[in-house]
Amino acid sequence: MSLAAPSPAPPAASPFYARVFGLAAAAILAFALYQILEPFVGPILWALLLAFLLAPATQRLRQALGDRRGVAALVLTLVVTLLVLIPAAVLATVFARQAAELVTRLQETAARYQIGQARDLLRIPLLDQAMSWVGEVAGLTHEQIQGWLVGGSRAFLQTLISLTGTFFAGALHAVLGLVLTLFLLFFFVRDGDALVQRLLVLVPLDDRRKAHLVEHLAAVARAVVLGTLVTALVQGTLVGVALALVGLPSPVVFGALAALASLIPLVGTALVWVPAAGVLALQGRWGAAIFMVVWGVVVVSTADNVIRPRVVSGQARISTLPVFLGLAGGVGAFGAIGLFLGPVIVALAIALVRFAEEARQGEPPLIATEPRRPAA
Question: What is the band of 28 on the pLDDT scale with cuts at 50, 70, 90?
Answer without folding.
Answer: very high
